[in-house]
Amino acid sequence: MASPVTPTPILKDELDIVIPTIRNLDFLEMWRPFFQPYHLIIVQDGDPSKVIKVPQGFDYELYNRNDINRILGPKASCISFKDSACRCFGYMVSKKKYIFTIDDDCFVAKDPSGDDINALEQHIKNLLSPSTPYFFNTLYDPYREGADFVRGYPFSLREGVPTAVSHGLWLNIPDYDAPTQLVKPRERNTRFVDAVMTIPRGTLFPMCGMNLAFDRELIGPAMYFGLMGDGQPIGRYDDMWAGWCMKVICDHLGLGVKTGLPYIWHSKASNPFVNLKKEYKGIYWQEELIPFFQTTSLPKECTTVQSCYKELSKQVKAKLGKVDDYFNKLADAMLTWIEAWDELNPSTQLQNGK
């Protein structure tokens, strides 16, 4: 009897999996059936002399702080240290069209029927189908099998726009801030909502980096996770900062962002008291940051992600610099990030990406 033919994994040669870590990557054993065919980029945070063990059989490259300093030189200052924001270095050195990034405390979740969820496959489906940011479809994702556009949905908008980002969710430990963790220490998310939706144009959202995929060619230069962690007055806002910047740019360029499926199993809650220390300033600052991003507009001359991001950095310095000097440093780091991105990815620079 002939053995069954194993289907080729989707986008096997077009996608990198980026993982930030400070520990051995035993969690990959659980993901082996889904991740083994793909190339991994591991960004080691913290002490570069520590040896990180990766299970056998995975195709990977591993970068530590010494590598980051060697590759970027003085521009390495834009990559955070002692914070999971270091993952965005992996986005920069990748040569693939798509990125999936996951934290090392995220395991395979099960759907309501008890089957393992292939999170990567669902992210790919999200990225390969259009988004509908200009008009909300009440049946959520109209491109999904068994769904369609509802009555009253304009036919001129049914083609949708390219999807730049797929934002997945979590079962078990929710992605809460420290005050909510302290108030609800035992709360667990057990609700599996079988839906994907496009986040409407003009609407911001808190992006979580632990279960996230994006089209690197469409939006990669905007996925900078900022200056966080060691030597900075704030932490745990890295993915959210990237999400706000990215969403403003996607709205400007006519790109889509999806959220919902896939779920992963978030295995452990971080310490709320440690988190509070990291988030303390951010909890105040976000009351200024959100109105800034809600009212920011980019000039029509900005037609590439790079030019949009440079313009955004100018506005950050002009309008948020007065909130705290940290935002002047962050604005400078945003420019350094783009310069480093363009040095490592010269083919992504377009003629008008000045």
From TrEMBL:
Its main location: Golgi. This is UDP-arabinopyranose mutase. Its EC number is 5.4.99.30. PANTHER family: ALPHA-1,4-GLUCAN-PROTEIN SYNTHASE, UDP-ARABINOSE MUTASE. It catalyses: UDP-beta-L-arabinofuranose = UDP-beta-L-arabinopyranose. Keywords: Cell wall biogenesis/degradation, Glycoprotein, Golgi apparatus, Isomerase. The keyword Cell wall biogenesis/degradation applies. It is found in: Golgi apparatus. GO terms for biological process: cell wall organization; plant-type cell wall organization or biogenesis; UDP-L-arabinose metabolic process. InterPro entries: Nucleotide-diphossugar_trans, RGP, RGP_fam. One of its GO terms (cellular component) is Golgi apparatus. The record marks 151, 158 as: Required for activity. The keyword Glycoprotein applies. Belongs to the RGP family. The lineage of its organism: Eukaryota, Viridiplantae, Streptophyta, Embryophyta, Tracheophyta. Glycans are attached at residue 151. Probable UDP-L-arabinose mutase involved in the biosynthesis of cell wall non-cellulosic polysaccharides. One of its GO terms (molecular function) is UDP-arabinopyranose mutase activity.
